[in-house]
TrEMBL record:
Coiled coil: none annotated. PROSITE patterns: RIBOSOMAL_S17 (PS00056). GO terms for cellular component: ribonucleoprotein complex; ribosome. The keyword Iron does not apply. InterPro entries: NA-bd_OB-fold, Ribosomal_uS17, Ribosomal_uS17_CS. The gene is rpsQ. One of its GO terms (biological process) is translation. Keywords: Ribonucleoprotein, Ribosomal protein. GO terms for molecular function: structural constituent of ribosome. Pfam families: Ribosomal_S17. This is Ribosomal protein S17. Belongs to the universal ribosomal protein uS17 family. The keyword DNA-binding does not apply. It comes from Leptospira noguchii serovar Autumnalis str. ZUN142. It comes from the Bacteria.
Length: 59
C-alpha cells in the first residue's frame, strides 16, 4: 500500500509504502497482483486484512 504526503518543512511530496499481510482464503492471488483489501478482525498474529477483490492480475 502506498500513500503520498507533503513534507511539513520542505513541501515536497514523499511516498510511503507499507506491506500488509492479507488473508487469501481461496489462494487466488499471485505475487504482483493489484488487490483491494478490507480491514477485519485479527485472523492471526500479523494478519488484520482480508482480500476483497483482485483489481489487476500480474503479467
Amino acid at each position: 500500500m502506498e500513500t503520498r504526503k507533503t513534507h511539513p518543512r520542505f513541501k515536497k511530496i514523499v511516498r510511503r509504502s507499507v506491506r500488509l499481510k492479507v488473508h487469501d482464503e481461496k489462494n487466488e492471488c499471485a505475487v504482483g497482483d493489484k488487490i483491494l483489501a478490507i480491514e477485519t478482525r485479527p485472523l492471526s498474529k500479523e494478519k488484520r486484512h482480508r482480500l476483497y477483490k483482485i483489481v489487476e492480475k500480474a503479467k
